[in-house]
Amino acid sequence: MLVPREGRAWPALGLLFVLATVAAPAVAAPPVPGWLRMNIPATGSYLWRYLPPGADPTAPLPVVLFLHGAGGAPENYQDYVREAADAAKAVVVLPKSSSSLGWGLGTDDQTVAESLRLVKQELPVDDHRVSIAGHSAGGAYAYLLAYT
What we know:
148 residues
């Protein structure tokens, strides 16, 4: 127990309070279910992440990387993947390719890898349940990435 003696304890208590406040780590807000657009600074691209409302963001989650078709964009597929993601309680990640011609050009391999890395920074991911899929040219590139 601190007993003030000649007023010396009060400044020490004030200093301890300030240090405890500054040194305390900030508590991150829990991830919000639904769609979240994230930029990918390493490639100049972006992704959309979907967290189903029924998923537990404190436990390792399955992830599906879904690659859009040529001439498309991730936004075009949000309505098509949401219901399956909700049923499976799986996170869906929709990255944007570097070209409207499809996948496999420019920094697409890095965009896919960075998409997964960024989602892992936000959510716990079950590394044994990460998959990749896609539509049309995105499906073809998903096949190539899965086997390399």
